[in-house]
């Protein structure tokens, strides 16, 4: 992931942001394998051969329906349900190197300077390669870093002036 390069491109005068590509086939296969291995490991059945299960992506909001139905089926083990219904990567903050680069560029080029104009300075600022190599949000997120330094009485105004995340598909991550 660390070597991926993403650029923030503006489309002519329209000001449209070109969004980075999502996970490529190799990254998606790695994500699915990791998700299924994690489910198998946490089921305490790690000493047996992991069954081959065809995964189905579900959004966080939709997890109750198919997953709950699967768990209610006495013929299917809970771990098979966990391995079958896998969250969409972006729903849980798992992004391609290109997407992470896009978020970093937003943080570095727009969010951090915006916060600085409001007197809120970053004490830690990773390089782009450090950010993408360590899964991005897990290593650094400006608003999380500010923590107690973010004045509660001004929080809404600050967030309005300096959005926490870049435009879609990432703006949906905001709590």
Strand and helix map with partners:
Layout: E1 10-11, E2 16-17, H1 25-42, E3 56-58, H2 64-72, H3 78-84, E4 85-87, H4 97-117, H5 128-133, H6 142-146, H7 155-161
Parallel strand pairs: 3-4
Antiparallel strand pairs: 1-2
- Taking all Cα atoms into account, the compactness measure Rg is 19 Å
Structural class computed from helices and strand pairing:
mainly alpha
What fraction of the residues are assigned to beta strands by DSSP? 5-15%
SS field, number of helical segments: 7
Main sheet attributes: strand count, strand direction, barrel closure: 2 strands, antiparallel
Q: Give the strand order of the largest sheet, numbering strands 1, 2, ... along the chain.
A: 1-2
Supply the number of structural domains: 2
Morphology call: elongated
Count of β-strands: 4
Mean pLDDT: 76
Distance between the termini: 26 Å
List the uncertain runs. Answer: 1-19
Q: What is the helical fraction, as a range of percent?
A: 40-55%
> What is the ordering of alpha helices and beta strands?
EEHEHHEHHHH
